[in-house]
Amino acid sequence: MRILAIRGAQIASLAGEFAVELDRGPLASAGLFAIVGPTGAGKSTLLDALCAALYNRTPRLDGRSSVKIGRDDDPEELHLSPFDVRSLVRRDAVSGWCEVDFEGRDGRRWRARWHARRARGRVTGRLQDVEQSLVCLDTGEVRGGTRTETLAAIEDAVGLSFDQFRRSALLAQGDFAAFLRADVGQRAELLERMTGTEIYGALSIAAHRRAGELAAELDALRGELGRIAALDDDARAAAEAEAVATAAAAAQAAAAQARLDQAVAWQREDAARVAQLAEAEAALVAAGRAADAGAAAAAALVGELGGDGAAAAAGGDAARAGLDALAPVLAAAHVLDGRLDDARGAAARAGRGAATAEAEAAAARAAVTTLADEEARLIEQRADAARWLDGHGHVAAAHAERAPVARELAALATARAGVARLGRELARREAARVAAAARASMRRGSGSPRPSWSTRTCRAGGRPPRIGRASSRSPRSRPGSRPCNASGSRSIASPPPPPRPAAPPPPSTITRRTPRCAPPPPPTPRPRPPPATPVSP
User: Residue 27 is inside which H or E element, if any?
Assistant: First the structure.
């Protein structure tokens, strides 16, 4: 803002009207001018009129007091407080006023007016309340209504409060004289009060207190840092490599779990085959019963024809024909019997292998879960340490202690070794199971008959050989038996089946990488023995 003019009348030591036009005449171009005169000439009155018109306050009358002063012969209602601004009105005047023309911070010209008058227009009248107004000289706009609203509008137009105005645009005479006579400490205090720098002292105290709090927090953080074993670049890289290796081990364990699930599926398939074998066994029992019925019929026929030699011979031929007709059935029964034995053994081995595989799968899943938890914990700890180091990079002493993390890494390496051993054991079990499945498949693929009965030529009146349920051993001749004819006849039996091929031994060395489950090799065909040729008598 810029002061343009100061006017007034009947204010303190200035009787009558007065005006100081700062925007006209020589004062308009003067950058610096002085207000001089003897004591009581009204130099300070000009400054009082300036402040009263703008703020209804003056530096000389800035204070509070409950004491009222006045002449002894004046009535009590005429007495005023020593800090009342209305005391600027001269005692011999019925009213007094002052006004200030100024250019506000918005660039427009304003006029602020202060007016105080006595009651009933008499010199002895009581001073009434102050009247203030603010008018825009450019547009004629009137701001404010009540005195409080008018003072707020003036302060907004000026852009300074009273304290800011008296310290930046106006320095009272008393404050300047006290400043010149004060010592260093008092002068600093006075300057602080005059320029409004008390806030900087308060800021200094608050800054010192805040610095103490931050120092305590820093000490606490350093203590926490001392308890945290931070990793250097090499250890951090090693931890990341360990995390990658752990992830790879977890992937391998997941692959092993998939293979174990496949083994469980195979077990279910074996159970289905066992059911099929049970059906074949039932068919075998039915065939045996049919064979027993045929043998009983042949025996009855021979008994009926025992007195007649020719009839007996004919009956023997019929019995032999019946036996020859039952030979394929018995051969098929023997084949089914062998397959049933092989299937039972394979099913038992598959059940044991499946139970072992299930236990190993559970152990592998537990190991994978443990490793995953450990990996997550290490990754979280590493992330916490990285964030802490990023936020507290100025603290370098914490990089020395890393023994707990080294112990954690050693535990992780031990866990990895356990997972590797578990993988090798799973691979060995899987190879053994595949070999057992291959042997079972080879046994099921070999379908050569194993007859265990012999054909004898019976003479007339002789007893036919006993025909019963097929077995895996050739029946022995009944003690005391004799040849069926005079010249004797020899028994012709099926040659014994060739020995079964030995199962391949399990691999002696299993690498860390678990081999994929390969389909069993095709069964080796077994040579079929020549069929038995009966010899006629």
Answer: helix 25-29
